[in-house]
């Protein structure tokens, strides 16, 4: 009986010793993983990775074009056309940087950041056009237009759409 209890004591002590040796290894591995995660989470996206202008056309129950275009400071235009879009599918093209600057200048002139978030008169099932601009300082602003749109703002939306369609090589009648 004594032999059996001594044997059990030796086995349990041996198990504790090997667990104690493994614990620091596991803790080190966990700390390494935690360091990788915290480092990855603190990196800021580059300016090229964040669009400064997002232009969207929303669908309706009819044949309204539905697409989204993201415009970056370097002139890159990332586009995805859904149903009835000027071009369907994903595309990436380049706009002149001067065009991007013109859009931003016109938006500033219109006091885009102070505009209401929505232009609508309450008619059901109208397609919407939304424009999001991310200023260098401060949060992004989105304005969605369905109807009752001020003429200057409509002109800006039309200008953006034309520049985008031209860059994509899309016909203006679609």
List the helices and strands and how they pair.
Blueprint: H1 2-42, E1 53-57, E2 67-71, E3 76-81, E4 89-94, H2 97-109, E5 118-119, E6 129-133, E7 141-145, H3 151-168
Parallel strand pairs: 5-7
Antiparallel strand pairs: 1-2, 1-6, 2-3, 3-4, 6-7
Helix pairs in contact: 2-3
In short:
This protein has helices at residues 2-42, 97-109, 151-168, and strands spanning 53-57, 67-71, 76-81, 89-94, 118-119, 129-133, 141-145.
Please tag this protein with its features:
20% strand; single chain; alpha+beta; 174 residues; 41% helix; disordered N terminus; globular
Structure description:
With 174 residues, this protein is an alpha+beta fold. The protein has helices spanning 2-42, 97-109, 151-168, and strands at 53-57, 67-71, 76-81, 89-94, 118-119, 129-133, 141-145. It has a 7-stranded mixed sheet with strand order 4-3-2-1-6-7-5, covered by helices on one side.
